[in-house]
Amino acid sequence: MRVLVVEDEQLLADAVATGLRREALAVDVVYDGAAALERIGVNDYDVVVLDRDLPLVHGDDVCRRIVELGMPTRVLMLTASGDVSDRVEGLEIGADDYLPKPFAFSELIARVRALGRRTSVPLPPVLERAGIKLDPNRREVFRDGKEVQLAPKEFAVLEVLMRSEGAVVSAEQLLEKAWDENTDPFTNVVRVTVMTLRRKLGEPPVIVTVPGSGYRI
């Protein structure tokens, strides 16, 4: 899952991004509304964690732009105000969820995960395919009932493949969904991660390489 964090308090923004990355999410960070509009015009995000009171371009206008573009991106709006009227206004603008500050990080994670599941084809909270069971919320993976320990990027790649439900996922798509924008697109990081993931999942192999196209489970 790829997430954009938009928050003008840089320490908070970086802390949120670090925490989300530890949950095996790909995270980009910007500190104002203008930069947020630039990023959503270039990258496809599953969820935008959006502070409402932003410099340069207000968070409300960023949210409206996402809605106007008809993007499937889900918006979790953050604000220092927890008044009911503010929450209602934020939802009416187009936000999918609303979280007042200060917040518990565990709740933020749960809300981001929940929004990420609201795809065009709703997916269950626990993904199962080819003997693999993946629980994004608990960060657990089992194969044939035996737990498999994965590094965050390995988990992220497996989650993207599981969510594709048998469709082929290109290396470029994996790079976009499992890594942030600071990753060199010309590295072999996807291939190496898939190789390690295959080894950890054991025999027989469940990740199939489709020559010239990508990978699938």
From TrEMBL:
<feature type="domain" description="OmpR/PhoB-type">
    <location>
        <begin position="124"/>
        <end position="217"/>
    </location>
</feature>
<dbReference type="Pfam" id="PF00486">
    <property type="entry name" value="Trans_reg_C"/>
</dbReference>
<dbReference type="InterPro" id="IPR039420">
    <property type="entry name" value="WalR-like"/>
</dbReference>
<dbReference type="InterPro" id="IPR011006">
    <property type="entry name" value="CheY-like_superfamily"/>
</dbReference>
<dbReference type="InterPro" id="IPR001789">
    <property type="entry name" value="Sig_transdc_resp-reg_receiver"/>
</dbReference>
<keyword id="KW-0597">Phosphoprotein</keyword>
<feature type="modified residue" description="4-aspartylphosphate">
    <location>
        <position position="51"/>
    </location>
</feature>
<protein>
    <submittedName>
        <fullName>Response regulator transcription factor</fullName>
    </submittedName>
</protein>
<dbReference type="InterPro" id="IPR001867">
    <property type="entry name" value="OmpR/PhoB-type_DNA-bd"/>
</dbReference>
<feature type="domain" description="Response regulatory">
    <location>
        <begin position="2"/>
        <end position="116"/>
    </location>
</feature>
<feature type="DNA-binding region" description="OmpR/PhoB-type">
    <location>
        <begin position="124"/>
        <end position="217"/>
    </location>
</feature>
<dbReference type="Pfam" id="PF00072">
    <property type="entry name" value="Response_reg"/>
</dbReference>
<keyword id="KW-0238">DNA-binding</keyword>
<dbReference type="InterPro" id="IPR036388">
    <property type="entry name" value="WH-like_DNA-bd_sf"/>
</dbReference>
